Structures are given as structure tokens and as C-alpha cells.
Recover the amino acids of this structure.
């Protein structure tokens, strides 16, 4: 049987000064690839079930795995999550940076993942990402650019091949090339759920100051 493969149209690559177009795509529940400080990510807006579904489809990610959320600043984090003094000290000490904090979700928050008690949160790792989130007026789901369970893509060409259903890609460089440290701030004792560039010793030293 002969299988015809349709030639795919070239995926749009946006420059940093074209963020208004990216904001419009996200407002319409689109999914965009963006560079973060650690790895390339793919993102969608947080307050739409359709946007979350589109993001899952791009990554073929199972429903059982929640998406991390990226906020523009501390104020936006406090709008969606409970931030006690200890968590605030961790956030102010290391964010923006290669850190993800697990926090308790605030009641009544408009987030399409309604069944979650906790949220994994990062802070925008570049001015461009912060402008996109502020322009959108709400946080974004942010996850690594790859198919679920596969290695993270390291170039725009790899992303285009791995995630052909994206609505576009933002150009830019990543620096660490290593996923962020994940620290759970919801328990009595802080716990690192995924090791990364920031260690528990770094966090402990910051809390003692």
C-alpha cells in the first residue's frame, strides 16, 4: 500500500519583538514553543480547557500528569497559590531562576486543572516571557519541548520535528540545558523532588540568612 505523506507547511518562527502575535495565538488557545533558562519549553494559557487539551495533544502527555505553571512575578504567584513566609523567601532568593516550587493552590483560581490541590510554579525566566505573560493577563502552562517520555529537544529544528502540531516557535537561546530543581514547599520540611542546578544546601543557606 502506498502511503502519501503531505508536505508540511513551514512552522512560523517568531522573533522577540513579535511577541504581540504570540500573545494573540495564546489567547486563541494556541500552543507555542519558547526558550527558558533551562530548556526549550512549550506553553499555552492556563484558564482554558481547550488550550490545555491542545498542549496535551502537542506532547501526547497523559491526563494523569499535570502541567507546571509559569507566572510573570511574585504578585502573580500569590494570586494563584498560598505563599507563606518560607516559600516567599525561597521565591525571592532564587526566582526567576532554574527553580520550580510546589505550592498549595488557592481556592477559586481559574485554572483548567481544577482537580489539583497543589501547583508546580516557575517564574518567567526572561523579560520576553514576562512580557508575554503580562500581555496575556494570566499565567501560562509551561512544559519541556518534547514528546512525553522522550528527551528534551535542544534546537528549533528538533522541536519542529518532535512537535509538528505547534502553532509557532519563539527564537532564542537556552543556557543551563538542565531541567530546573523542583522543591516542595507544601510540607513541614522542604523536599527536593527533582535535583537540578539549585541544591538543598543553596536553599537552606538562603533561609538561614
Amino acid at each position: 500500500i502506498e502511503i502519501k505523506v503531505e508536505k508540511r507547511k513551514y512552522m512560523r518562527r517568531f522573533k522577540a519583538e513579535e511577541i504581540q502575535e504570540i500573545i494573540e495565538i495564546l489567547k486563541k488557545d494556541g500552543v507555542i514553543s519558547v526558550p527558558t533558562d533551562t530548556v526549550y519549553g512549550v506553553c499555552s494559557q492556563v484558564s482554558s480547557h481547550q488550550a490545555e487539551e491542545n498542549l496535551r495533544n502537542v506532547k501526547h502527555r497523559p491526563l494523569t500528569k499535570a502541567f507546571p505553571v509559569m507566572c510573570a512575578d511574585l504578585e502573580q504567584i500569590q494570586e494563584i497559590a498560598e505563599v507563606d513566609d518560607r516559600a516567599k523567601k525561597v521565591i525571592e532568593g532564587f526566582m526567576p531562576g532554574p527553580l520550580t516550587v510546589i505550592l498549595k493552590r488557592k481556592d477559586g483560581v481559574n485554572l483548567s486543572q481544577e482537580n489539583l490541590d497543589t501547583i508546580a510554579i516557575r517564574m518567567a525566566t526572561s523579560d520576553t516571557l514576562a512580557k508575554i505573560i503580562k500581555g496575556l493577563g494570566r499565567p501560562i502552562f509551561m512544559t519541556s519541548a518534547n514528546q512525553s517520555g522522550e528527551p528534551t529537544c535542544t534546537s528549533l529544528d528538533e522541536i519542529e520535528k518532535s512537535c509538528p502540531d505547534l502553532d509557532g516557535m519563539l527564537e532564542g537561546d537556552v543556557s543551563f540545558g538542565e531541567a530546573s530543581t523542583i522543591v516542595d514547599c507544601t510540607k513541614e520540611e522542604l523536599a527536593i523532588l527533582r535535583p537540578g542546578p539549585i541544591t538543598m544546601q543553596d536553599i537552606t543557606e538562603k533561609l538561614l540568612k
